[in-house]
């Protein structure tokens, strides 16, 4: 399972902190100034990366109003696909300016292409890695084309069967590209944590020998923090300035305060996971004295025999270790030992 080098600043790997992506999607609400503000706010909230989606209504669907193009349920119930994407898409003429803004504030920038023309556009823009959306995991020609660019690919797997994921991964690898991260994803908006089945994320990593993570559409950060505890190395969350700024994605996006708290919780979880380490921690060392040890519980004169009546194993831990208790019984005191004294090796001897 190889580390994925995103750029000179960022690496995704087993031993690196989770890579946290702020997904802008349609949260700019049609304003480039909002888009720039999202980039700045994401950086301030602790995101490692901001992500766009690169499509137009015409590159992702067609302008048709028959029943096939209408959404019948969920967050976008009643919407026509072409009209919905017209509200949500990020104008391509903004991309260069937004990438420059990301470079300026020091946050990584990448995007999800939805057709070949978007890939070509992002290549010209100099994007250093790609995202494949859950709904595009079955678009094998697109995945093959993205993989042919030889850049890292973060691929969401919402709705996908094991066989579908296997096919997509094989297509990427057939292009000589091993730079793959698979994200567990519940493709519902919003999703519920009850149906995340994060053990599937772990299994994907084991099955395909790749790094894994979570694309999280649920409210709150429980799913994200739990995923990190289970080994997620990438977390992606939709990010908005304020859910009051209405757009197709606002209802299931995190605001800056919520995102910052999630980042804080993830980083604390990573510290709690830590490394394999036995023995007292630095915090525990001061409590070693409250372990048990052997104490003199009745005053003993020099030459007197050590018995169960004049020594005990009690707290605190200033005397000999309890494991020597039976060995000490029957020996004699070499000096007078006052009641309440921790027993030391040089105080006793054989008869």
Q: How would you summarize the topology of this molecule?
A:
Layout: E1 4-5, E2 11-12, E3 19-23, H1 32-45, E4 49-54, H2 57-60, H3 81-88, H4 95-105, E5 108-113, H5 116-125, E6 130-132, H6 140-147, E7 153-156, H7 162-174, E8 180-185, H8 199-208, E9 211-216, H9 222-229, E10 234-238, H10 256-273, E11 293-296, E12 311-314, H11 325-328, E13 332-333, E14 348-349
Parallel strand pairs: 3-4, 3-10, 4-5, 6-7, 7-8, 8-9, 9-10
Antiparallel strand pairs: 1-2, 11-12, 13-14
Give the count of helical stretches. Answer: 11
Using DSSP, what is the number of strands? 14
Q: Kindly give the count of domains.
A: 2
Q: Bin the strand percentage.
A: 15-25%
Q: Work out the radius of gyration.
A: 30 Å
Task: Please characterize this protein's 3D structure.
- Helix content is about 30%, strand content about 15%.
- The protein starts with a strand and ends with a strand.
- β9, α9 (about 220-230) and β10 (about 235-240) form a beta-alpha-beta unit.
- The model has no long low-confidence stretch (mean pLDDT about 95).
- The protein has helices at about 30-45, 55-60, 80-90, 95-105, 115-125, 140-145, 160-175, 200-210, 220-230, 255-275, 325-330, and strands spanning about 5, 10, 20-25, 50-55, 110-115, 130, 155, 180-185, 210-215, 235-240, 295, 310-315, 330-335, 350.
- The protein folds into 2 domains: about 5-275, TIM Barrel; about 285-350, Antifreeze-like/N-acetylneuraminic acid synthase C-terminal domain (Type Iii Antifreeze Protein Isoform Hplc 12, Alpha-Beta Complex).
